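TL;DR need structure tokens for one chain.
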Amino acid sequence: MPAVRFRTILARFPVKAAARMMTETSAKTTPRPEIAIVDDDPAVCGSLKFSLELEGFVVRTYYSGAEFTTANNLEGCACFVIDQSLPDTNGVQLIEGLRARHIEAPAILIVGNPYARLIAQAAAAGVAIVEKPLFGNALLMKIKEACKIVN
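>> reply
TL;DR here they are.
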């Protein structure tokens, strides 16, 4: 579904117009919150990056847990959007690693099928869960809430 949304966005906003909108938005609002996305699906990363940049965020994408854990400057991120099911680890473990590094920015797990134990773990850690497929603005609203952005 995210790839379909990406194509829909592209159809509505030609690339030049989207680039102009991002430039105009960035000139009006400083600083822009930085979001880190961790998902092994390039289509999900690409569509989320595009959509969130249109909303005025700076977005970094990571395609594996290993790539994410070796990244520098994660302290500057305002929010983390992390897929629970990654080939080399899981989202909860990545969030635990962030907390061990004393990085306390809010995190959001994107989950295909949340089970009771995962929901309890996330709640105990203060981590929001957004279910896949990503319909509507649920993820965007959670990100804005985490970054304390008021519409």
